[in-house]
Amino acid sequence: LRPYGLVIVPSGWEGDEQALVLRAVRRMAQALGGAEGMRRALGAVRLEKREHGGGGLYAFWPRPPWMRIVIGRPTLHQQPEWLGEVAMVHELAHAWDARTAGILFRMLGRPGRVVREMMQFVGEEPGPTWYGSGLLGLRRTFRAASEEWAETVAAYLYPEYVAHLSSRPEEQGWPLRVGLSQHVRPGLGPRHQAYVEARFREIRERAGHLTLPPAPSPLLAVGQERGGGVMGVGGGGEAAAPNPLSPVSGEKRGKGA
Question: What values do phi and psi take at 194, rounded to 5?
């Protein structure tokens, strides 16, 4: 895992848990253009396992490599087992955003540039999942926006995650509960799809990988009606999304992603 920028604490891991983490890291790295793209997006991150609890990112950790992810055994061992990979990618997405935040923002738990620009770009389009759109519909708090970004990355890299959630009542019903009857969820709306694709493409280009690798989820034409396939769960007829690299979401910059 070191070539990808992850410094793993060796104690406490069992069986094929590290192999599960490696599968998640490789899927994300492939979309970022390889190990170099992964390091550009995340820098270096300490990773450790704990016996209980879920996953979490410490955006500021007071010793090298200055950022820490912890992930609990119950989170790694889910059914189907690839949900553990989804949880890992979710936490890595948090680390990606934290890398674009100043040190004070990280210490205060505030989102970085990636999340702030996503909030501007997607407008009122809900996130891809119930959890990724704010608990009970309370959207656009700092915490809800950060979770929305992490779930957007997870849904983009794991379209099977969206298919799995589609059978769960809480995912099917929350848009109606919060007055979003025109939106079909779970799934990436066109603005979220365009934004997350642009962020991955930005890292690939900086890493020198100008040719797009096979996408982990269908590349939807902006404004095209969505239907069919695993990702065809977002409603057609939604407004076309503008360019996520336009001034409303920030132009390409030197450092960060």
Answer: -65, -40
Q: In the structure encoding, which two tokens stand for residue 74, read together?
A: 């119950």
Q: Which residue is associated with the tokens 């992930």?
A: 71
Q: Residue 209 contacts by C-beta under 8 Å, 6 or more apart in sequence? A: 33, 34, 37
Helix, strand and coil in the chain, % to nearest 5: 45, 5, 45
**What is the tens place of the pLDDT at every residue in 122-173?**
988 888 887 767 544 445 666 788 999 999 999 999 999 988 888 776 666 6
Per DSSP, the three-state class of 109 is coil
Torsion of CA 130, 133, 134, 135, to 10 degrees: -10
Using CA atoms, how far apart are residues 207 and 132, in angstroms rounded to an integer?
A: 29
Burial pattern 60-86, b for ≥16 Cβ within 10 A else e, equals beeeeebbbbbbbbebbeeeeebbbbb
Q: Which residues pair with 47 in a beta bridge?
A: 8, 69
Strand partners, 58: 68
Name the β-bridge partners of 124.
Answer: none
What distance lies between CA 179 and its chain's CA centroid? 25
Measure the CA–CA gap between 111 and 18, rounded to whole angstroms.
Answer: 28
pLDDT (tens digit per residue) in 30-52:
999 999 999 999 999 999 999 99
Q: Which two tokens stand for residue 47?
A: 């990773």
Phi and psi at residue 16, to the nearest 5°: -100, 25
Contact 25, 87 (CB under 8 A): no
Nearest to 29 by CA among 178, 190, 222, 204: 204
DSSP H or E run through 20: helix 17-32
